[in-house]
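Suppose you are handed a protein chain with no further information: no name, no annotation, nothing but its sequence. What can you learn? This example shows the usual starting point.
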Amino acid sequence: MFSQFKGLTGRGSVLLKRAISTFFHLNARIKQTESEIVQMFSPPDSNSETSTLSLRRIHPKTNNLSIRTLDERFIRILKIFKWGPDAEKALEVLMLKVDHRLVREVLKVDVEISVKIQFFKWASNRKNFEHDATTYMALIYCLNEVGRYGEMWKMIQEMVKGKCLIGPLELSEIVTILGNAKMVNKALSVFYQIKSRKCKPTSRNYNSLILMLMQEGHYKNIYELYNDMTNEGNCFPDTVTYSALIYSFGKLGHDESAIRLLDEMKENGLHPNSRIYNTLLGIFFKMGNVERALGLVEEMKLKGCASNVYTYTELIKGLGKIGRTEEAYGIFLSMLKDGCRPDIVVINSLINIFCKSGRLDNVLKIFEEMCSYKCTPTAITYNMIIKALFESNAPPSEAYSWFEKMKANKVPPSSFTYSILIDGFCKRNRVEKALLLLEEMDEKGFPPCSFAYCSLIDTLGKAKRYEAASELFQEYKENCGDASSRVYSVMIKHFGKCGKFNEALDLFNEMKRVGLSPDVYTYNALLSAMVRVNMIEEAQSLLQTMEESGCKSNIHSHNIILNGLAKTGGPKRAMEMFTKMKTMKLKLDSVSYNIVLGCLSRNGMLEEAAKLMKEMGSNGFEYDLITYSSILEAVGKINEGERTTSF
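A reasonable first move is to predict its three-dimensional structure. Written in structure tokens, the prediction is:
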């Protein structure tokens, strides 16, 4: 069949060049006969001296072309003609045996994924050939690489349900691939399918799945998997397992269980690593067990487990949260002394601690030193400083200058940056500046921020600019897809304050219609509106509805009703509710006492007021200006009554 082409090596080379040209106009698909395809891959004519010499230079000991050369030619035809009859014929001519090695090599070729899939399916139908775990995994890697997750999942299912053996190595790889593709439930499903049909999982397999679950935040499934692992009989938890379990229990709030696991792993002869110690440090600080946390650091030193940047972070954050600012700063200095370079998380934690304790000098010092630590300030860094400046009553211009510095240093402001500035300017009654910032925020493409709108609407309401507040609220509803119950609560409060009870009630009903659940602040706003228009009975009924709907009232809720009764129902009804409040699981505050004292004083009940003042003092409340004003009012009324009687 091939004899007619002998001696036509020149023509063959021309055809070959034309077929693999990189020029578009020459690279177009051309019609070729079967014989021409054969010629492209036929060994050179043995009579050609030049060809023979060339062949001998490549393989001095054989007359067959090397596999490498053949593979290169096959790769070229595969890239040009894709998978089909031409590529099949090339395999036949090259006498390449279709085995697992060949399939793996073809799947490595840089061609379209569809070509690889077609070749894989073609190989499946070959006589005396079946795919094994290595060929399946090769295609699964390819599908994963190009994001064809649906087809990848089908291929995994075919592999699991088929005859090929799957070992622990492939099981770990499949779990990892599915985890990276965010297919967590499918990873769990495949794990149990393979476990029941193919192979017995090893500790490494369980760890792969546990780490995948931890990375995706599926903490509840981890403990179930741990129980399965321990029931296997041949799988024993190692340091990796315990590390993931302790971390997961910490995230779930199962602090005692996490601590017990530390003791368990020690009993099993395992040594905690720095990750485990760091996780437990955070847990102990969260529980308020500072001494145990510090003891854990000493244990780390004794066991030769070096502290790292995460250890110092937990220590600084933990000590800062309980107000031990100096000790937190001391840990930071020790960190520097030990040669451990701080990262941005440590720096931000320390700045946050100094900001909350009002130590702005330290904040600015740390900020200036950041360059020497090779730390670049982030939006979080600037946000904390701007917020601290507003809270320390620094001039608004100083806070705003940090916003300008932030932009000058090419640190993009976040939505929270604008919210802090808007709230800060609102609290300084700089509403127009706050509105300009809201407009700038919108121009920058940030979505409407509930916190910013809350601050502005509340400030406008306090300034009795109710129409402006209402207009801004309407703008918020139109622009915000997910409205916040807090913004509704603020608007309800101000409708109540300006005597627009019906509007307040309509807004309360509207928020329920749009799927928002009223919280305690919403109910309190409507209760205040009711009391202002003397709807005391209705307010008491709403308080009961609030409790029945699962929204827990607070002391402020009851004080609102108490204030209404004190003003309209007289001292008897006020004292009845005050007595009832004492029996409830509510901690009375100075407001509760002052409301009743005011009621007693207005009714000239000086003796009862004096007794209540004594009770107030014995319960640890200090007398304030309101308290004294109430008593002076009562004394004044008695004196006035005595003068009238004498006259």
